[in-house]
Fold these 2 entries.
Entry 1:
Amino acid sequence: MPKLRIFYILSLVVLGVLVGFTVFKPMAVGGEYSEVQRKQLLETEDGWIIQFDIINHEGRDIDYIIEVSVDGEPSKITVTVRDESMFTYIKHIKPHMLTEGEVTFMVYGEDSKVPLEEGTYCLKKAEFITQ
Amino acid sequence: MRKLKLKTGSLPGRFLRAFICVILLLSAGAAVVYAETFVLPSTITIDGTFTDWGTTGSPTAGAYLFQDASNTGAQDASVAEDTLEDLNWFWTAVSTEDGGDTPATSTNLIQDFYYRIDSWGDSDFNPTQSYYIQLNCGTAPDGYADHILQINGYENNTPVVTLVLYEYETPYPKFRAFTTGTIVGRVSNVALPYPQFTGAHDATAAGARELYDGTHYGIELNIPVDWFGLTYGGSIKNDGTGPNLVASTVFSSTGTLGSVGTVRDTLNDGDDNTVITETDVEDGDTDFDDVTWKSYDTSSYIPPEIDSFTDYSTQNIVYMFGVGFTPSTTTTYRVVFWDGAGNNVEVEDTTTDSDGYMSAQHTFADPDTAGNWHCTVYDVDDNPSYTPTSYALGLSEGYMVADDTSYTGGYAFNVEGTAIPEIPTVVAGIAIAGLCFGIYYWMRRRRACAQT
């Protein structure tokens, strides 16, 4: 029984440490990095939505460049994301904006020539022709 | 932002009037103070004397006014100038028992809404000349009309001014889609305004028409607050606890009593945009806007606007909705959400619908910061790469077209930490696992005790 009690107390201590680590986020010190998460293409009644999150773990504020091309029509914005913060980008695409239906996006960190994330979607305009 | 715009026209007389108005406004500008306030029930009398409204340069405290600035905007027919259908000034006021800046409460009830329409007409009225105030009384979604008030003045009628409040059947029409929608007459200041009328008769509403400046005709009227309440399909309450805004658009029409007719002149700003008037029933203030941009906690955008987000289960998403944007067929508008720490937490590139209605939304999530938030809209047609690095810079860089400033301090809304899921999934998982282990251990111990 004493062994079990010791094991129980140790378990609580480990649990507390884990909870503390997670709350204060020291487990995220595995390097300075940026990441793109929750990348998704949503289909709505009247078009599509491209959405993704940019998360900054670089240890400083970072300017990110987002380039989106809808059938060759470029759109480029720069956003500042604070350290340890997240930014969500959403772009609505309506059928009338499309010809071939090719949509690409790229995300760069500042001073980086290598995309942090990139993707291409092929959207079919015909599906959204109204009656 | 409240705006005063001058009507423009091609006739020399119109320029002369505009010039005189400019001089008057400039000379009186320093003295014009728009306190957010109600009038007393005795302040405005509906008797055809307009002096109790004050002057355009110095309106009575609690009276708000806007001058139609164009006859060329969308749904704004090029009406014959100097006619009754040609709008000039539009005035509003709201009375409470106590008047002044005391908020409407159960002990300081809202009494009447007052409207006044000044036309450029200098001849008598005719039976097919009506004015309309298209209303959102808090029942229809934001940007949609649930009622329309018809104002008809004809000298052969008794009384001269007939008022009819119609309720729109669903689907509710959009503001500025003036001639669409099915209407049902609900209440009038006369018993039978038109043969098919089956609504109520309430003579506590009244109107009067006279020359407001010695040359041109105007109509003033009062509408009891009950007309906009539950009895007739609205949601406005006399103690101020209902929707906090009565939104409206104003136009003249050829419609006879019982019908709307053809729109002739709308209340427009200098950019030809239709002006939406928003009367705050909490403080009596009326704003005249060509673009509205508000926050809600549901995607139905049913008033009232929500400026406080506190409950994660029901308010984890803020829905923004606006009216009056330029209809666009390409990506035109960039919506930015700024959290309580001033961080740009979301950019949404979006378009309007064919009527200039636009929406956006943000889901509160870690690491969003609680506090006072901004939500702004930028026109990036001419600069597709534009995104301000801070809310403050966005104010001055010339691309902002809408900014919800309805919350205290000029913010869009307030977000409490309780609306943001601050406990990450990993923490929740560990906590639950720990709890399970604890229960398991407790049960084993009880079983061991029972066996011994």
Entry 2:
Amino acid sequence: MSENRPITYLDESRLPYPFCPGCGHGLILNHLNAALKRLGLDPRRIVIVTDIGCQGLSDKFFATNALHGLHGRSVTYASGIKLVNPDLKVIVLIGDGGCGIGGHHLLNAARRNMGMTVLVFNNLNYGMTGGEHSVTTPTGAITATTPYGNLERPLDLCTTVAANGATFVARTTAFDKSLPDLIAEAIQNEGFSLLDIWELCTAHYVPNNRFSRKALEETLARLNFPTGVLHRQARPEYSRAYRQATAARRGEPITPLQPLNAEHRSALRETRRIVIAGAAGKRIGTAATAFARGAVLSGLWATQRNDYPVTVRSGYSISEVILSPQEIRHTGITKPDLVLALFPEGLARIRPVIEALEEDDTLYVNADLLPLKTRAHVIALDFKATGQKKEFWAVVGVAAMLRHSALYPLEAFRQALSLRKAFAEANLAAAASAENLPLFDHADAHSSHQ
Amino acid sequence: MRHFLNGAEAIARGAIHAGCDFFAGYPITPATPILLHMTRELPRVGGIAIQTEDEIAAMGFCIGAALTGARAMTATSGPGISLYSEQIGAAIMGEVPLVIVDCQRLGPATGGATAVGQGDIQFLRWGTSGGYPVIVLAPSSVPECYTLTLRAFDLAERFRVPVFLATDKEMVLTNTTVEASAFERLSVRERKTAPADGGFVPYLLEKPDEVPPMSPFGGPHLLRFTASAHDAHGYLTKDPRAIAPIHEHLEAKIRAHVDEIALFRADIQSGAETLIVSYGITARAADEAVARARASGLRVSAMTVYSLWPVPEKALRAALRGVKRVVVPELNLGQYRREVERLAAEGQEVIGVHRVDGRLLSPDDILEQGGLR
């Protein structure tokens, strides 16, 4: 209870309400005021979030915080507010139209049990735009957009949110004298509450369907939509659950950036462009990152650009690495100087690149992929002879390339491999297995081009 | 000391250093690494990061969070910006400080998820109803991803407006070597808030081009926010006398401060007949092209634009002075070229160099098509 408990939460200077004669909206707002008075909350701790439609005009009548946003999105703003300040009571006023266009948000706020009270001003059609049908319009009803009768089945809001995580759900009508109690109980619930409040749209639904309070009650009965409190459940409220789940992390330092000091020296005097062509799931990117980091540990500048399809563990995986004694401006490779071709998927993707290689370029290639049409100097690598699994062939290949090309010392690559703790031991073993790997000059490849 | 990292990590680290304490996003290639970084790291600094049900919700969460006092950011790609559109309008209308990262990919529509593009450059400026201005910054290196993220948060607070970081697949996912000293840690101003003991009128304008102080939900004052036309008190109205000054203010607060927002790098060579105007990832190829052209004895000037919107017209006009032709390389079919064309003098030739096939423009593309060879 607040010390400055207001006698009313309405801003009476702004009354009367602008709603049509006989409309239920004003009744609901009076009931909301009665509920707030009963709870006696500090108005600064209350945020009323309105949606689009006639109920969207109502926040101005309350001397509380207010947010009037876009159609169907009221629940999204309410979620952001609650996440940042779990002590606030967030009350969403939404129409049946908003529950349609924003149904996805409603469903997910219920699943999360995000702390808010959703009051649905359910008058069975779109009042403000001219009486079109909504997701809650009963089957057979005449509306502006169902002149021959509504063919759709009305959405059971209560069952939907109750089945999906809401912790307080009730249905009633705007005529219900106990509505202040229901609203107060909904607001007191820490989690996601929804009240489906049926009412009359005297501008459209009533004249179009010869509707009345009696007909409204009969419709509820015919649809087998019970009224009263339908669902109560104890579940952690999301914004507090998030804080609890992350409490142990709070105050931990953020993950530091890995420093790479130039502990080794490279004799490289000009820029070298390297393409590593492999297959998804074969740790191509991991090997390429270690390759590039090894260069940085040798005082070089390096970039690593990856190319892959949208698939995850299938298809090609290609890494383009540029090494240079100077800072690298353009990170793309039009024509590489060195190519490491490991698997058929990557090879197929870079075939034009291999065909464009020149005599002083080098192609390191899995011997099983030969022969290949190229002018480049070809070094065939017998990965199978190393006894390494395919997932480590990229590391084997890079180590072999470093042995042969002297881009930078192999020791720097080994150091880079040990930076990634997860596979350090296996990666280092793979790199070691390249030490005795014969580096065959593959003359056949040249002849196959001639 | 050097590091090896990509733009996504630089942006996320920049955001955390800027005091970002709220992030909401939806997975999309190539922006997902930012979402992952924020969900892992933000709780450590007492912040909140959440994956929402869709992009519309991500922006709604950010708006609600920012109005409750948070420094909020979201990250997506072009298809996500399409879904952000209506909420961007709400943030402009209600003057919400936000940072939105667009990791552009090849468009239109779902386009190429893992392919680069710069097709959102006009979309970011004009992508919501009403046509009111936003601020768009475009980094062209990994350290700039970091620094411009800090700048984006600072400008968002300064002007109470969504500030975009327009980047792309190659910038966010390509690892590069960075000298530790290159991360320029700009300061980010505190939010201007109304004193607790005075009155508070949420949209009371002291001057048409200056933004009023804020007060968060749950703070000492009552706050009224609306995405509808409103008066100074935040009440929905159709009164033209109340609406006009607020709408004119949304434009004036940016237009009057173009010079304050302008960020660019002008590399002018006297006697140059050609000027290359570039931004983002393409500026890297342009830099290389300029270096090669000069090495071959050609005189050429270059301008890298970091603040794409509002257009830094004064700086562009100064760079255009005296050149015969302007080359504008872009990974679209000439979107920023439109802005250069309207600033070019009569007789100045404006040449667009384009690529929309998911590959980067190369220095050779720029040299050949730009008549520098």
